[in-house]
Amino acid sequence: MEKVFYGLNVEFFVEEIKNRPTIWDMRCETYKDRIKRNEAWMEVARQLYSNFDVMELEKQTAVLSELSKKWKNLRQCYKRELDSQCSKSGSAKKKRVQYVYFDILSFLAPMFSTKATTSNITVEEEDEDEEEEETEVGDESHLQVESSEETNQSSLRSFTASAKKSCKRKHEPENPVADICQFLKKSLEDKIAAEKRQKEKDEMDDDRQFLMSLLNYTRAVQEIHKLNMRSEVLQVVTKYYNMSRGSQPEQQSTHVRADIALIGLSVMGQNLILNMNDHGFVVCVYNRTVEKVDKFLANEAKGTKVIGARSIEEMVFKLKKPRRIMLLIKAGEAVDAFIKLLVPLLEPGDIIIDGGNSKYTDSTHRCKTLKEKGLFFVGSGVSGGDAIARYGPSLMSGGAVEAWPYIKNIFQSISAKVDGEPCCDWVGDEGSGHFVKMVHNGIEYGDIQLICETYHLLKDVLGLDHNEMCQIFNDWNKGESDSILLEITRHILKFKTNSQPLVDSASQKGTGECTVISALEYGMPASLIGEAVFARCLASLKEDRVSASKYLKGPSGLQYQGNKKEFIEHIRKGLYASKIVSYTQGFMLLREAAKVFNWELNYGAIAFIWRGGCITRSTFLGKIKAAFDKNPELPNLLRDQFFCKAIDNCQESWRHVVSTAVTLGIPTPAFSTALAFYDGFRSKTLPADLIQAQIDYFGSRTYELLSGPDKFIHTN
């Protein structure tokens, strides 16, 4: 624990003194200059007390007096310790406990020469010590010595006192407190006099008086118009300033106006900015921590057309109209806080874009609220991650459709391209852009879980090593199962490392959870996405699983006895069929939300947006686009001929994989729930009739009859 002396951090206090030799070094030229010494003491006080300059004069004097006393006390203790060490040797010296601050005060050693001298330095040092004979108040545990040492210290004090009496006859004692008080008083008088002179000067300044006369009119202007007013005033002043320098008005330089502003310099934010710059757009950047703006401009954005702003007001001023401002910050309160700052500075028709992972309900609310103020809000999902943002993300924009013509060129230019077409389009109204991004993330959860279960089957059922699995994924990625996630998995398995195996636990950011909650709210069976989320929850219970593995029994000693090559193909087909179910459930949820919110979603366009620049990208999505292009009202992907036939071709292998996994005790929740959904969806009848009867029995909830639907009956 740090030693604290009278509420002060002693080490910090001593360091500040040490940095100002004027206070303590009698060899310093300014040591005898009382004004310089007083100024040095005030600098120390400012370092220790941030509010020193606003204290009353009496309070400042008291603080400086106290600091002076503390310093004298420390210095005297150091001198006693130094003299004691110089007078001891051998075993006696070893018994002592050294003064706790001796080392940090060692810079004073030259001031306390042990040689007998009558120099001015020696006399002045005694003068300074003579001002106050004070021992350290409070705990003196840092002055621990043996009893014999105390006797010697007493003798030393007697000698010092005698020397001081001799000096007293030659010199009048200093009074630094009075000097400091006088100095502060004079400083205050000088400050008052300077302010008076400045006031008189201002009263004689016609330009200042003219500008001050406009103050009341300026304050009367509505906040929504103030930024434009300042801009126009600045242009007029600049015009006549240039004329006074001999410039022609038409030749005056103009400010560079940015096409779009981006707030938030995360890695993704920086990469999107550089992407926009590469496509010829001027971007104005702002970050709450302004130092990040300077650093970005000096490094990553050096040599580009990117411009910076050190305030929200400056950023808004530097934008072309209608102003386009994109937020890439943490979802939630931070977004609302920035919108609140922006609204007073903007004009009707200006556009605010939220590119974070905001909840679609928040985006809907913001869209409605800002529309009432004449502003356009866009909630845009940005997919692909930090690295992909640099060269082509997938963009899903929704909100105020009036904004689309003004941001379309920028967004489609920076997005990923597939067959020359941008993976970016207008999704729909209000919060639809963020809803589509949320469902995309939920499907991504499902895809990842399916590949993990595939890895588990190949490793634990077939006993394949990483090289063998790497080759399998490479082969699959050349056919109908092609996807970026298979490619990523292949790279991971190919990577050689000497480190220990990874922990079999996975975290989540919550986007999968949000998809499942929305599915429950709108009554859609997104069971595969749900199992993918729950699989991560189960995996996170690492300690419980390790413990349970010691006492919960399952199949033991069983091994797969079939043909490995054939089973690998069964797994591939089961993976493909399960993936069809995952996307089927995702688009069912999109369609139901569109009904609830009256959104006009283009499902074919959404599938194409996902074909590039995001984690779900695959050629498989081209088949989904084709299905919706052929029938925009398609209620379910399993009703499309291509997908119906594809699942039928995979069905036997799919069932074989799930049954084998169950037999061998290998968990495959995503494969299994996908198959269960398929069987449930194709069933003409399900046992829900019994559910009706049960809840009517114990809850009087009534039931319906096939012969009379929409007629509810209760039986006692």
From TrEMBL:
Residues 144-159 have a biased composition (Polar residues). It comes from the Eukaryota. It catalyses: 6-phospho-D-gluconate + NADP(+) = D-ribulose 5-phosphate + CO2 + NADPH. Keywords: Gluconate utilization, NADP, Nucleus, Oxidoreductase, Pentose shunt. Coiled coil: none annotated. GO terms for biological process: D-gluconate metabolic process; pentose-phosphate shunt. Residues 123-138 have a biased composition (Acidic residues). Residues 12-113 form the MADF domain. Residues 118-159 are annotated as: Disordered. The keyword Nucleus applies. GO terms for molecular function: DNA binding; NADP binding; phosphogluconate dehydrogenase (decarboxylating) activity. GO terms for cellular component: nucleus. Its main location: nucleus. Pathway: Carbohydrate degradation; pentose phosphate pathway; D-ribulose 5-phosphate from D-glucose 6-phosphate (oxidative stage): step 3/3. Residues 204-243 form the BESS domain. Belongs to the 6-phosphogluconate dehydrogenase family. This is 6-phosphogluconate dehydrogenase, decarboxylating. It comes from Trichonephila inaurata madagascariensis.
